[in-house]
Amino acid sequence: MSPLLLLVAAAFALEGMWLPAQLPDQAPALRSAGFSGDPAALADLHGAPLGAVVSLGGCTATFVSDTGLLITNHHCVTGMLQRAQKEGENLEETGFYAATRDDERPGGAGARVWITQSTEDVTAKVVGALSPKLGDRARNDAIDAASKRLVAACERTPGTRCRVASYYEGLQYSLIRQLELRDVRVVMAPPDMVGNYGDEVDNWHWPRHAGDFGFLRAYVGKDGKPADYSPENVPYTPPQHVTVAPRGPEPGEFVMVAGYPGRTQRWRTALEVEREATLRIPSVLEHGGWVLQTLQDRITAEPALAAKLTVPRLGLGNSVFKNKGMLEGFARAGAVEHARARDAALDAWVAADPARAAKWAAPIAELRAVITRRDATRLADERMDWLGRSTLLSAARALYLWSHEQQKPDALRELGYQDRDAPRTKAWIGDLDASLEPGTERVVFEHFLRLVLALPVDQQPPELVAWLAQSPGATADVDGTVAAALTRLYGAPTLTDKATRLALFGKKPAIFNASHDGFVSLAVALSAYDERRRDADKADQGAFSRLRPAYADALRTFDPARAYPDANSTLRVSFGTVQGYQPRDAVTYTPQTTVRGIVEKAGAWPFAAPPPLLAAIQAGQWGAWADPALGTVPVDFLADLDITGGNSGSATLDAQGRLVGLVFDSNYEGIGSDWLHEATMARSVHVDVRYVLWYLDAVAGADSLLREMGILPSVG
Amino acid sequence: MSPLLLLVAAAFALEGMWLPAQLPDQAPALRSAGFSGDPAALADLHGAPLGAVVSLGGCTATFVSDTGLLITNHHCVTGMLQRAQKEGENLEETGFYAATRDDERPGGAGARVWITQSTEDVTAKVVGALSPKLGDRARNDAIDAASKRLVAACERTPGTRCRVASYYEGLQYSLIRQLELRDVRVVMAPPDMVGNYGDEVDNWHWPRHAGDFGFLRAYVGKDGKPADYSPENVPYTPPQHVTVAPRGPEPGEFVMVAGYPGRTQRWRTALEVEREATLRIPSVLEHGGWVLQTLQDRITAEPALAAKLTVPRLGLGNSVFKNKGMLEGFARAGAVEHARARDAALDAWVAADPARAAKWAAPIAELRAVITRRDATRLADERMDWLGRSTLLSAARALYLWSHEQQKPDALRELGYQDRDAPRTKAWIGDLDASLEPGTERVVFEHFLRLVLALPVDQQPPELVAWLAQSPGATADVDGTVAAALTRLYGAPTLTDKATRLALFGKKPAIFNASHDGFVSLAVALSAYDERRRDADKADQGAFSRLRPAYADALRTFDPARAYPDANSTLRVSFGTVQGYQPRDAVTYTPQTTVRGIVEKAGAWPFAAPPPLLAAIQAGQWGAWADPALGTVPVDFLADLDITGGNSGSATLDAQGRLVGLVFDSNYEGIGSDWLHEATMARSVHVDVRYVLWYLDAVAGADSLLREMGILPSVG
Question: Which of B206, B580, B586 is nearest residue A590 as measured by Cβ atoms?
Fold first, then answer.
C-alpha cells in the first residue's frame, strides 16, 4: 500500500482539532468513537466541560473543584514553582504540596489564567469593508488597525483580554474575549524526577513514565473580580468544574481533550510543504546543529558555563531533535508527494469548471507566485536571523524599536510594542542575564557574521556593511572586518548589565543614536534594514490575507472532509480512542505503561526516581487505583486524538466527560503531524488519572487535595 | 510477582538442550508444544532428522540434498569465503553463487564437517576405577590419561575424530565418535549486507532483518571415504537429508532445533553464580572496557590502524556488550538470589535425611571450600591473564610450551599440544599478523603490567619480578621497571616476523633459552609460573571432578525437573514455539519481521541493503513465499526454544521435521540464560526459510540450488 492510500484510508476519523461550535456536526464521528453524551453540550463555552477549561498561555488547565482548583501538567507549573521558591528551597527537586490554603504560593506577577467568555465572528469588520483595489501593504495595515480597534474596545471591560484570531487562512476572523485572572497560586507539584521522569532521554519517546501533573488555584478579589495577588483574595468560583474520575481509560476506549492547541500548518500549499522539507528544516538542522555542537563543546571544555548555557542548549537540542523527527516523519508519510498530488488534483478540479476557475485559479496562481518570490531573500534573511539571535543584539534592537514606537499613538504601533505589552517586555529585558554568556555569543556571532559576509555582495544588507566599515580598525578583507566588529561589540559591552538595559527602556531615540555601545550602535544602524524587512513582510502578509482564503476556500469545497481550521491557540476539542501503534517492523507499542516500568528504568538522572516513590511501588499498595487488566497502577497512556503544542495540561475526558488523564506530549513518529497528520503513527501521550490519584494518596499523602476533588483516599 | 515465582511458573516447558536419547522421555512436552512426529525417531543419530545434522566446529549445518548440500548461517561460511577468494574479488561484499559444481570453491585446508556416528558411555572407563584415596592432582591426570587413551584408540579408524565429553558436571562421560570430512566447498553466500544486515548495530537486537544463510557442499574421495581437497573428489552422500519446507512457521507453531550448542553453566553452585555476577563480569567490563576504549581512541587518532585493530575491537566490543547484557539479565532475573535460594533449599533437603546427608553433605561443603579457596589468587590471576593477552607474549609462550611438550610421549602432553594439534597451532602461529599492532600492544601491555605491579608484593609472580629486575636499565621504582621492560620487549621484537615465528615452531628448548628476544625470554622466565598455575588448576579440576558430580547428583534428585545436562558442544535437540516477548513496559516484540523492515532500516552501512534486494522488495513479486497473514515475505522470527553459541546455522524444523528456518542468534534480554534460563525473556533468533527461498528465487536467481532442494522457483 502506498503512503498516500494508507493516509486516505486511515487518517479520516481521528484527525481534527474542532472548534466547539463544530462538535454538534461531528455527532456521528463522536458516537462511532464511543462518546455517549450530548454532542451539542460540547459546543457550550459556559457549560460542562468547556466552562472548566482555561488557558495558562502556552498550556491548558482545567478546574476540578468549585473553589478554583486547577489541574495541569507539571511542566506548566515549574516556572511558577521556581518563582515561588524561597531562599534555600529547591522545590523543583523536592516537589511541593500546600496542605492548607495558607501554604499555597503565588505563581509570580506574570502568572495568568484566561477563561474564554465568548467568540464573535468579526470577519465583516476586519476584511468586509476592504476595497479590492487596496494595495497589499495598505490591506495589511487596514486589517491590523481594525483588529487593534476591536481588541481595544473589547478590553475596555476590566479584567478582560481580547484578540482577533484568523481561521482557515483568513477566510474567517473571530474576536475572542477572555476573562483574565491575575492571582494564580501553586498548590501541588511532584518532584522533578516524578513529573519529568526521563527528561530529555524519554522526551518525545514512548514508553513514557512521567507523572506530568500539578495543581494551581485561581484567586480573585473579595468582590469576585480579577485582582492582582493579595493575601486578602479569595478562591475563584468557576462556572464549571470537571469531575475527576476514580477510574482510568481502557485500550480502545473513547477519550477527548479540550484545550488551546498552538499552531498547525495543514492548510499550507504544496510549495510550502516542499520548502519546509527541503529548505527550512535542513537549515535548522545545519545552523541549529552547529550552534548546539558549539554549546556542547564549550560546556565540555568549561563545565562552569553549564549554568548559563544549559537552558539554551536544551531548547536548541529539543528544536533540532524535533526538526529531525519532522524530516523523518515527512519522508515516511511522503508529505511532499502527498501535498503535490493534492494540489495537482485541486488545480485540475478548479480548471475543470469555468465558475470555479473564474473564482480561484488566479488567486491560487498568485499565491504561489508570492511564495516563490520570497525565495529570493530567503538565504540572506535566514543568516541575518541567526545573527540576530544574539541576546545582546536582540535586546538592543527591542529597546531601540520600543523607543521608536512609543513616539506613535498606541494603536499605530507595531504589534508587541503597545502599552499593553510594556510589562512583559520589560520583564524579558531584565531577566535575560540567566542565559547570557558573552564568550559563547561572540563565537556564535562570528560564525554567522562570516556566513552573511559570504553572501553575494548584493544580498548583504548595506546598513550592516556600512556599520562594519565604520568600526575602528576595520580593514577591507573579511578577517579584518570581522575582528574589528567583534572588538567593537564584545570589547566592553554595556548591555550585559541589567540596570543599564532597564535604564534604556523607554528612552528617546536620541539617547540611542548617541550611544557608544557596540550593540546599541548596531541596532541603530540596522533599524532601516529591520524596517525594510518588516515592510516587505507586511506587504506579503497583505497579499496572503487576500490570496490564502481563496486557496482554503477552494480546498475545502474540493475536499469537504477538511472540516476544521488550523490550530491558532483558540479553544478546541479533539477526540479519539486509547490506541498503541507499531513504530516499526515487528515492534508494537501497547498504549499503557505501568509503575513497573518506573522501576525498570530507575537509575541515574534522568531516571532518579525518588526513594519514596520506589518504596511505594515496592510496597504494592494500589488501593482503588490499580487497572484490573494490568494488575497494577498505570502511569501514562497513548491516544490517537489530535493535539499539538499548547494542549499541554489539557484534561483528557472519558465518554461521560469525566477527567481520566492529562495530555502532556506527542510521540516522535507524530512530530510531522503539524503539517500532515498520519493517523497510523501520530499519538498523544497522557498521564493516567490513576497514577495522579495513587501518587497523591500513597506517596504525597495529599488527602486534602483528594477530598477537594471528591476522591476518597484508599491506600493505607 | 517476584522474579523467583515468575521463573518457576514459566520457565519449565521451553528450557532444555536435550540429549537425543532423552527425547522419547520428553514425549508429553513435545506433544504439548505441538510436535506431531514420533519422539523416539528423534533419538536416532542415523535417522531423520539427526542423521542430517553436522558440526562445522563452532557452527552447525544440515544436509538438504542427497548430494552433500549443506545449509548453515552466512556467518559460518564467511571465513571459508574469504579463503576461497581470488585476487581482485570481494566475495564478502558481492556474495557468491556457484551455478555449477565446477564453480564451487574449496573452503580452505581447515574446513571440516563432523558427523556424529556414535556416543558410548565411558564413565566406568574414565572414573570407575579411580581409587577414592587418589589425590586431586593424580585424579585429574588419571582422567586425562584415560580420556586420551580412549580418543587415541577411537581415532585409529581413518577419517574419524573423537573426544570424551563430560555430562552433569562429571557424573557421566561419553566417547563421541565423529566422521570427519575434509573437503568442504562454498556453494552460495549472499552479500554481507544481506547475510549480516545490521551488523554490530542490530547484533543481539530484535527486530532483526539479517538473511543469515549460506550453502556448502561436502565432498569425499571417489571411494566414498573422507579425503583432502581434490578436484577428483565427489559429493558426499549423507545418510539423511532434511526436506526444505516450501512454507514457514506461524506464531505459536511448534519448532525444534538440532545442533551443537557450545557451553552453558546452569549446574553451577550459587557461589559461582555470585562470583560471575560480582567478580568476573565486572572485571571484564572494567578491563575489557578499558582496552576497547583504547583501541577505539587509537583508531580515531590514526584511521590506518583500523586494518589491524578492527577485528580485535569488534570481538572485544561484542564481549563487553555481552557481559553488560549478562549483568542486566542477572539483575532482572534475580539470578544470584535465585541460585542462593535454590542452594539453601538443597542444603535443607540434604540435611533433612541422614542417608542424603551422608552421601552429599560433605562433598558439597568441600566443593564450596574449593571455589572459595580459588578467590585467594583471583585478582593476580586475572591481571596476569590480561597481561598475557598480548599477541606476541601468547605466541612466545605457545612456542616455548610446544617445544617443551614435544619432548614427552604424545599421550602425556598437555591438551592441545599433541601431534594431532600441530597443524592448527602452526596455522595460528603463522596467521596472527592479521591483527598484530605492536604500538597498541605496548600501550595495553604497559597498562596491565602496572596493574600487576600494583598488587601486594606477595601476589606478584616472583618469576616476573625477577625478569623485570634483570631487564637492562631497570631501576627500583615502578616507572623505571616498566620503561626497561617495554624497551626490552618492544625495542626490537623478532616475533613480529612470521618466518621467525614459524622457524621457532618445534625447536628445542635450548634455542629458546638462548634467545635475546624480549618476549621469548619473558616466556621462558614465566614458564615456571605457567606450570605452577597449570598444576594448581589441575589439582582444582581433580577436586571438581570428584565433588561436582555429588552436587549435580543431589540437585537432580532434589529437583527432577533438571533433566538435561549443560551444553558441551555435543549434539542436542531443543524445542518450543514461535513466540515474541515484552522486553519492557508497554513494548511488545512480535515474533516475525518482514522485508518491509529492510526498507525501513535501509541507509548507510550497516544497513546498506544491496540495490537488487531493494528493487526486488519494491517489485513486490513474492511468488509462493509470502506469509498469508503478513501479506509479504517474512525475514526473521523468534522462538522460545533454548540455544546457545554453537547452535549457529542449526536447521529449525517444524512438527513434521521439515526445515522452516535457521537459528542464528539469541536476543539481548536472553544473554544471561547461559547461567539461568529466563523463559519470559530468552528467545532464539531464526531466519525464515521463505526469505531464503525468495532471495534465491527473486534476487539471486539460484534456480539450480532451489531445484536441488526440490523447490520450484515461483517468482518471474
Answer: B586
Q: What angle do CA A409, A411, A414 make, to 5 degrees?
A: 95
For A337-387, the DSSP string reads HHHHHHHHHHHHHHHTSHHHIIIIIHHHHHHHHHHHHGGGGHHHHHHHHHH
Distance from CA of A588 to the nearest CA of B (A): 5
Residue A329 at interface with chain B, using a CB cutoff of 8 Å: no
Phi and psi for A674 in degrees, rounded to 5?
Answer: -65, -25
Q: Write down the pLDDT at residue B7.
A: 33
Question: Which of B55, B65, B74, B75 is flagged as catalytic?
Answer: B75
Residues of A in contact with B585 (CB under 8 A): 207, 209, 593-594, 596-597, 600
DSSP string, B546-571: HHHHHHHHHHHHH-TT--SPPP-SS-
A294-304 pLDDT, tens digit each: 999 999 899 88
Mean pLDDT over B276-281 rounds to 96
- pLDDT of B1 > 70? The answer is no
Matching residue, cell 542468534 = B665
Give the pLDDT confidence of A513-548 residue by residue, as tens digits. 999 999 999 999 999 999 999 999 999 999 999 999
- pTM for the structure as a whole: 0.87
Each residue's pLDDT tens digit, B81-92: 888 889 899 998
ipTM above 0.85, yes or no: no
| Predicted confidence band of residue B9 (pLDDT cuts 50, 70, 90) | very low
Which residues neighbour A54 within 8 Å (Cβ) at sequence distance 6 or greater? A60, A61, A62, A63, A70, A113, A114, A115, A218
Residue A24: CB atoms within 10 A of its CB come to 14
Torsion of CA A492, A493, A496, A499, to 10 degrees: 100
Cell of A652: 483528557
Residue B691 near chain A (CB below 8 Å): no
**Averaged confidence pLDDT in chain A:** 94
Do the chains contact at B597 and A584, CB–CB below 8 Å?
yes
The residue from B136, B202, B212, B343 that is catalytic is: B212
From B589, which residue of chain A is nearest by alpha-carbon distance?
A: A587
Question: For A595, which residue in chain B has the nearest alpha carbon?
Answer: B585
* Nearest beta carbon to residue A586 from set B584, B586, B589: B589
What are the φ/ψ torsions at residue A607 (nearest 5 degrees)? Answer: -115, 30
